[in-house]
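Lab meeting, item 3. Inverse folding demo.
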């Protein structure tokens, strides 16, 4: 027996053409490379098999980042001897029987490729015992060939041991990361799978050292606490929808990366990037640039609404109607964090319009107001931005208002040729303009809300050309400037409109715009209490 099957047939072929059918061992090795990209891929496939078998506890052990050893133990339903022998064959599965079943997949595994693919590139040992059996079974595979099978002692459940991963694919080994990087990838996979099944206990050991110890949790929040810590879990806001549920971070909690984003569709962990645009849209005008929320989302859809047969590693899904679920995700998150608007993540006590009255202006930048016994300091530019942004989000169209005098706008070289292709959109926003020499236009009317017609026109052109948030661009350039002196009537009107905003504590760029100081705190500073 050859340790490594030849990649090409030894006997010469009489066929002289260029197209040949690959030998089975080559085809199998190519398929294995698609399914098993790195040790973490093998761990994911094997743990998903354990979960499909109804395991209440899954133990993962690795050595050498998972290249030297991967061992998965579970207390699931186990397999009979016949099923164990059949399970290592390609396209052998207990999850589906007909092509129609692909439209109704509810299990994590269904392709029947994982054990075969792993066994094709390693030394794999499967030991198992089914419920009600008196003895267990053992099957051993080396580089795709079964080398041993027979009875073995084993409790109910299954243990899969994988040694020397990619032993016959040295090129793949060369593309793996360091041992530490591969071990970290395994940790991430186990943590993600544990988040998808809080009711299952998980453990992970790497080179004999305990890395994760996650007993069965009562619910998702408790599992988040186990994986990411109690402070984060306590801070999260629950989503209140039957289709999209889970937890997201309040506006006061954000991170420099998307590390704390986890998405599962019908219990299947999917790439967070699939829903990153929807999550980002929900927080688009609420967090500072470069900051990201935590989001642990669960989508519960009918089996016919989800196509899981998209990627060999089953890490992506396709939803019926394309991205039709995105608006639901955005709306559910926005509704959950809406009560957070009053204090940017603190108390949800709102502002009483009857008590909110202006005292004056400070340095032309802030409005000082009073609400009952609280002193309110408001960033007037940020507050006006928020007012205009929410108004423009509802309806970006504006009535053109004739300017006291036309304004000549010099256009950037890269945008000048595109302006006239945007004419309809710009006129709908409320701008009226005409050519004024090469690379310039003369604006003689602008939307009513515009404070700086030139800056607003350029912002609108840039946003349309770049596919950016038009409402944010116009709100920024249309709002009152720092240093602009306001009358008492203007301050009163601005305060009233600002207090009616949905997310009044944060400007569209995610910056805070109000500071509340309680009278008791001031008196404490003066030693009066």
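The presenter then showed the designed sequence:
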């Amino acid at each position: 027996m050859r340790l490594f099957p030849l990649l090409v047939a030894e006997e010469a072929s009489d066929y002289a053409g260029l197209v040949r059918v690959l030998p089975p061992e080559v085809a199998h090795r190519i398929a294995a490379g698609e399914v098993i990209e790195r040790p973490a891929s093998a761990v994911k496939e094997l743990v998903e098999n354990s979960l499909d078998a109804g395991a209440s506890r899954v133990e993962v052990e690795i050595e050498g980042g998972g290249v030297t050893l991967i061992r998965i133990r579970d207390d699931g339903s186990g397999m009979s001897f016949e099923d164990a022998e059949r399970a290592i064959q390609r396209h052998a599965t207990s999850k589906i029987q007909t092509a129609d079943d692909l439209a109704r997949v509810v299990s994590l595994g269904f392709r029947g490729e994982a054990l075969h693919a792993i066994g094709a590139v390693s030394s794999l040992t499967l030991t198992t015992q089914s419920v009600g059996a008196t003895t267990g079974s053992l099957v051993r595979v080396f580089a795709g060939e079964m080398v041993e099978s027979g009875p073995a002692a084993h409790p109910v459940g299954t243990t899969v041991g994988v040694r020397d991963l990619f032993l016959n694919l040295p090129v793949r080994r060369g593309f793996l990361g360091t041992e530490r990087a591969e071990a970290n990838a395994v940790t991430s996979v186990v943590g993600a799978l544990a988040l998808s099944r809080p009711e299952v206990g998980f453990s992970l050991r790497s080179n004999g050292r305990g890395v994760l110890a996650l007993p069965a949790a009562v619910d998702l929040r408790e599992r988040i606490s186990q994986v990411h810590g109690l402070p984060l879990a306590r801070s999260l806001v629950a989503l209140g929808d039957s289709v999209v549920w889970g937890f997201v971070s309040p506006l006061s909690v954000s991170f420099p990366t998307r590390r704390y984003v986890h998405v599962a569709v019908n219990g299947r962990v999917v790439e967070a990037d699939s829903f990153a645009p929807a999550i980002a849209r929900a927080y688009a005008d609420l967090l500072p640039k470069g900051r990201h929320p935590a989001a642990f989302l669960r989508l519960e859809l009918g089996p016919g609404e989800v196509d899981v047969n998209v990627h060999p590693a089953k890490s992506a899904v396709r939803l019926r109607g394309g991205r039709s679920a995105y608006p639901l995700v955005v709306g559910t998150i926005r509704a959950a964090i809406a009560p957070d608007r009053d204090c940017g993540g603190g108390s949800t006590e709102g502002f009483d319009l009857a008590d909110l009255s202006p005292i004056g202006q400070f340095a032309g930048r802030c409005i000082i107001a009073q609400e009952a016994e609280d002193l309110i300091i408001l960033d007037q530019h940020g507050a006006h931005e928020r007012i205009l942004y929410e108004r423009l989000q509802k309806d970006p169209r504006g009535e053109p208002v004739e300017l006291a005098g036309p304004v000549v706008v010099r256009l950037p070289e890269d945008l000048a040729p595109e302006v006239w292709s945007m004419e309809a959109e710009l006129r709908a926003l409320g701008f009226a303009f005409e050519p004024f020499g090469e690379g310039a236009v003369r604006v003689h009317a602008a939307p009513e809300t515009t404070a700086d017609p030139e800056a607003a026109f350029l912002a609108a052109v840039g946003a349309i050309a770049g596919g950016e948030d038009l409402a944010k661009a116009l709100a920024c350039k249309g709002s009152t400037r720092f240093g602009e002196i306001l009358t008492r009537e203007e301050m009163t009107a601005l305060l009233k409109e600002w207090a009616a905003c949905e997310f009044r504590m944060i400007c569209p760029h995610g910056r805070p715009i109000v500071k509340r100081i309680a009278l008791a705190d001031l008196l404490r500073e003066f030693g009066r209490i």
